[in-house]
Specification:
elongated, mainly alpha
Amino acid sequence: MGALLLNKVKSAGIGIWLGIAAAVIELIAVIMAATGDALTSNTSLGADAVAVGVVGILLSLAALWVRFNFWQLMPVILYTVTFGLTVKSGINVLMDRFNDVVYSGGNFDMVVIYLVLLGVACILCIAACFINPTRKTE
């Protein structure tokens, strides 16, 4: 089993490594969301976003075994759903800060951190779709 995994890692191209980097960034965001403060005083990044993010992470890691050029498209979809759920939960906090009112409460800094992490993960995974998943041997 170990030798099989080692061979898969050795033959992994830049596309797979970008997908794994996106999975690591998504994992950081999911851990922060699961253990951190609520985004707003009445909503949080719920279990649905965490579950979708975890499935996306698993699909990104599965790219080591499944060598299909657009495999990374599946994690992109799930990462984008997680990003959308974060925007939906945190938009009130963002608008409160931009309009200089306190209506929803919440943690503006955490909303921005989640959005940046999830956005970077989406961009990396989209880039991984267009880069060869296997290393070229000469």
